[in-house]
Specification:
With about 300 residues, the chain is of the alpha+beta class. About 70% of the residues lie in helices and about 10% in strands.
Length: about 300
């Protein structure tokens, strides 16, 4: 006997449905809402980490720490000339003293603009290749031109930020995995509870010739529909929250925070989550029902 010979009304009654709003639908909506938010956080943090690493890789700051202003100016010119001649340097820029004074103003006040203040000269360097060998080579050139030169690699002092963002990405991935496990557990519990509730009906169907697989399809089809419908609701609400937060972050004007943006591929991944969870719920329902049917029938 084919399962489709069972009336549609009987099919719907196999899982709890009151007033057209099944509890499973709203449970799945909540699950997908939280999952999409966690996934969006992980994807945005991953994108920001990639942007940060690209921006910092191969960026150096050369400080000419020379107390005498004349000697400092001479060494700065030698460093600029030597680095401009290097094929490994893509761009070089001497930081204006007025900019340095503005950066020091919160700590030194008006004294930061004093021409007698021995502020180190700074040169920003962008390399064609951020490998350790190239960085060491360029640093040697700078020190040969200016013995008082100090080399600061941007990647090194921003590495704690990058590590923290990587940790947030892994935490978001763990949350998505936990939500998937929780969804499977909820489906299994709901399927087993429904089996117990409609045990007599299932026994009758079994005596009429329905197989365990046919009975399992009744449950998995119902649960799949609940998951897709509830998941779509949760995903849409989560997308609204993500877009709203994106506008708020963009308004802050921070380059680092501005990197927390989702691309087309990220949105495609988020859009696939309701479908993936529906497949997960379907498989969980099938194995739960088949296992229970083998025990009770």
């Amino acid at each position: 006997m084919s399962v489709r010979l069972v009336t549609a009304a009987a099919d719907r009654r196999l899982l709890d449905e009151k007033g057209g709003a099944r509890a499973m639908t709203w449970i799945m909506a909540i699950m997908l809402f939280l999952t999409v938010l966690a996934a969006a956080l992980g994807l945005a943090t991953l994108a920001a980490t990639s942007v940060l690493n690209r921006q910092l890789a191969g960026r150096l700051t050369v400080q000419i720490v020379e107390p005498a202003a004349d000697a400092r100016a001479v060494q700065t010119e030698k460093v600029l000339a030597a680095l401009r001649a290097s094929p490994d340097v893509r761009q070089i820029n001497a930081v204006d003293r007025a900019e340095l004074s503005a950066l020091l103003r919160p700590w030194l006040g008006a004294d930061g603009a004093d021409p007698e203040l021995p502020i180190p000269a700074m040169v920003d360097v962008d390399l064609n290749n951020g490998s350790d060998a190239v960085v060491a080579k360029v640093a040697a050139i700078a020190r040969a031109a200016a013995p008082s030169a100090r080399i600061d690699r941007h990647e090194s002092w921003m590495s704690p930020v990058s590590s923290f963002m990587g940790l947030v990405t892994w935490l978001a991935a763990a949350l998505v995995a936990l939500m998937a496990a929780a969804t499977a557990a909820v489906v299994i519990l709901a399927a087993r509870a429904s089996l117990e509730t409609h045990r007599e009906t299932i026994e009758v169907l079994h005596m009429l010739g329905s197989t365990d697989m046919q009975l399992a399809r009744l449950f998995q089809r119902r649960i799949a529909l609940d998951t897709i419908f509830g998941g779509a609701i949760g995903a849409v609400l989560a997308a609204i929250v993500v877009v709203t937060m994106g506008y708020q972050l963009a308004a802050l004007g921070s380059d680092l925070i501005g990197g927390l943006a989702l691309g087309v591929r990220d949105w495609a991944v988020l859009a696939m989550l309701p479908i993936a969870f529906a497949l997960l719920a379907t498989l969980a329902a099938r194995f739960a029902v088949l296992g229970a049917l083998r025990r009770i029938l």
